[in-house]
Design goal:
The complex is a heterodimer of chains A (302) and B (261). In chain A, helix 2 crosses helix 12, helix 3 packs parallel to helix 5 and helix 11 packs across helix 12. Chain A has a single domain, classed as Orthogonal Bundle (ABC transporter involved in vitamin B12 uptake, BtuC), CATH 1.10.3470. The relative contact order of chain A is 0.18. Chain A is 72% helix and 1% strand. In chain A, a hairpin with a 2-residue loop joins strand 1 and strand 2. Chain A contains 14 helices and two strands. Chain A is globular, with a radius of gyration of 20 Å. Chain A is mostly helical. Chain B has a six-stranded mixed sheet with strand order 6-7-8-3-9-10, sandwiched between helices. Chain B has a four-stranded antiparallel sheet with strand order 2-1-4-5, with helices on one face. In chain B, helix 3 packs across helix 5. Chain B is an alpha/beta fold. Classes of the chains: A mainly alpha (302), B alpha/beta (261). At the A-B interface, helix 7, helix 8 and helix 9 of A face helix 2, helix 3 and helix 4 of B.
Chain lengths: 302, 261
């Protein structure tokens, strides 16, 4: 069904779908840190931007082929995240949140002011589309398949990581750090790994974003996307990657379809979030699970 | 000697929690540690397991100094402890609690798990097997898929021990494992500790229940105000006037006689 979407859906829907697919990457990435490790980060937007800027600058200034910049984008993002946040992630939760706000600001200030490298407030224009085998993925339809591929790979990889021993360690240390240490979990190393993974996913998401919107500006990577990604990640479902994807789809579509509300759009959006958090603190996926278990119960009774 | 602590001292903002404590535990022993509340029993365990660092003194485990190692490294060496107030991974299932521990020292890596490498896969399945066996040891098999926080209290206690067993300890420090248990649960626990010891695990047991300690342990160590006040055969230590005084306050001989019943 997802593969047939470009043939069925109008251009506008497909455009939104592309953003949903792009955003699932930073959101799933944040899930490693927030959902599974219990560390709330407000720097995911900046890391997303780091990935976007790395590929944008390498392709426009240095003439790299877009696809060749994927690995550098991921690596640069991971390096910056670990360098700036590697020691902070070992701290207690609240201090880490404050540190990530600092990281967010540092990255934005560098993007805005290091004009020789980043073009500063001019932004980066004319970013080329990704081309595979000499075939440029320029249109909304073409890009959709690229983004879908990225989203599927990132979903499968994330599921496997969560099922690996690292996933067990992260859940254990978010429950009780002292007990985790006492069963030989290297807590510090596990937390830095979670941070690195969240940055890797953000970097890959930023790579996609840059080659879709083709023009980037530092203000696209301020605190607002960080908050948005955090909300999507937490709104989805407690430690459920499917839930995070669902929440990304619902919330991103909501921001688009709420455009008729004009200026009031963000107020309505805020209300949806508030009600969601009040009634489904463990995420909207609970709704589906509840329905399923209710059905199982009635079937069991009959 | 499996464990040799010499002149271990620790103070918290001037309050002396441990004062020149010497502790020797030989391979295969089952040692009881008693003392009134605040006498330093749990602090001693926290120092031995690397949660606190001692200010002076040295701790040698299996021939190597461990007093400057981190808690995770000490567990790697086979010195394992349980907690007085249960510290389970509450949002994980009972089985997962044991698996996290059973993964200790297993070959392979998280990267190997993700890529599905043979070495990591067999290490993972080895850990699940070990976890299953440890749950069976403490009669928790049928609770395996229940969240740890949903376990009844007594069963949480057993899970704490199963998790410690999954670490395959050489020396197991049990911190008041019988706290809050009813008499029949206590009897079961006593049999469990005995059988773990019979398999060759060296055990140090902190316990308030003096009857349990004397029943299980040939040797008992008594602490009071952070100092070791007695160390010897259990029958002798619990008759020691200093030990009785520590438990009942300064008392005259008549009251001591009465307390001995």
């Amino acid at each position: 069904m997802l593969l047939a979407l470009p043939a069925l859906a109008p251009q506008y829907v497909l455009h939104i779908a592309n953003f949903v697919l792009i955003y699932t990457l930073p959101v799933i990435g944040l899930g490693f840190l927030t959902g599974f490790t219990g560390r709330v980060s407000l720097a995911q937007g900046a890391l997303f931007g780091t990935g976007a800027y790395t590929t944008a600058l390498l392709t426009t200034n240095f003439g790299w082929a877009p696809i060749a910049t994927l690995v550098p984008s991921v690596l640069v993002t991971v390096a910056i995240a670990v360098a700036l946040g590697g020691s902070a992630v070992r701290l207690a939760g609240l201090y880490f949140v404050m540190a990530t706000i600092g990281i967010q600001q540092i990255v934005w200030i560098v993007l805005m002011n290091w004009i020789d490298l980043t073009n500063g407030p001019q932004g980066v224009r004319s970013i080329p589309p990704v081309s595979l085998g000499g075939y440029a993925l320029e249109t909304t339809q073409q890009f959709y398949f690229l983004a879908l591929g990225f989203a599927v790979v990132s979903y499968v990889l994330a599921k496997r990581i969560i099922a690996s021993r690292l996933g067990l360690y992260l859940r254990a240390l978010s429950d009780d750090q002292l007990a985790a240490t006492s069963v030989a979990v290297e807590v510090g190393r596990a937390k830095v790994t979670a941070l690195a993974l969240s940055a890797a996913w953000a970097g890959a998401g930023g790579f996609l974003y840059a080659h879709y919107v083709r023009y980037i500006h530092p203000d696209m990577f301020g605190l607002e996307p960080s908050v948005l990604f955090l909300v999507m990640s937490m709104f989805g479902g407690y430690r459920s990657i499917e839930g995070m994807i669902l929440a990304t789809a619902v919330l991103e579509s909501a921001t688009e379809y709420l455009r008729p509300f004009g200026e009031f759009r963000m107020i309505v959006y805020g209300l949806i979030l508030l009600l969601g958090m009040m009634y489904f603190p463990k995420g909207i996926l609970v709704l589906i699970q509840r329905k399923r278990s209710a059905r199982a119960n009635t079937e069991g009774a009959a | 000697m499996l464990l040799q602590a010499s002149k271990v001292s620790l103070a918290f903002s001037g309050v002396r929690a441990l004062v020149d404590v010497d502790l020797e535990i030989e391979e295969g022993a089952l040692v009881g540690i008693i003392g009134p509340n605040g006498s330093g029993k749990s602090t001693l365990f926290n120092v031995l397991s690397g949660i606190y660092r001692c200010e002076t003194g040295s701790i040698v485990f299996d021939g190597a100094r461990i007093d400057r190692l981190g808690a995770a490294q000490i567990v790697q060496k086979g010195l394992v402890r349980t907690f007085q107030n249960k510290r389970l991974f509450t949002s994980m299932t009972v089985l997962e609690n044991a698996v996290v521990a059973a993964l200790k020292g297993k070959p392979g890596s998280a990267m190997g798990d993700v890529l599905g490498l043979a070495r990591s896969r067999s290490a993972m399945s080895g850990a699940w097997d070990l976890a299953h066996r440890c749950l069976a040891r403490v009669q928790l098999t049928e609770w395996g898929h229940v969240l740890a926080r949903e376990l009844p209290y007594g069963a949480q206690n057993r899970l704490e021990i199963a998790r410690a067993l999954a670490l395959q300890p050489r020396l197991l420090l049990l911190d008041e494992p019988a706290a809050g248990l009813n008499p029949s649960e206590r009897t079961e626990l006593r049999q469990l500790i005995q059988s773990v010891h019979d398999e060759g695990v060296t055990i140090a047991l902190v316990e308030h229940d003096v009857r349990m300690v004397t029943g299980l342990c040939e040797r008992v160590i008594a602490l009071d105000h952070g100092e070791k006040i007695a160390d010897g055969p259990s029958g002798v230590v619990i008759q020691d006037p200093r030990v009785i005084a520590a438990y009942f306050g300064e008392v005259d001989d008549e009251e001591v006689e009465h307390a001995r019943g």
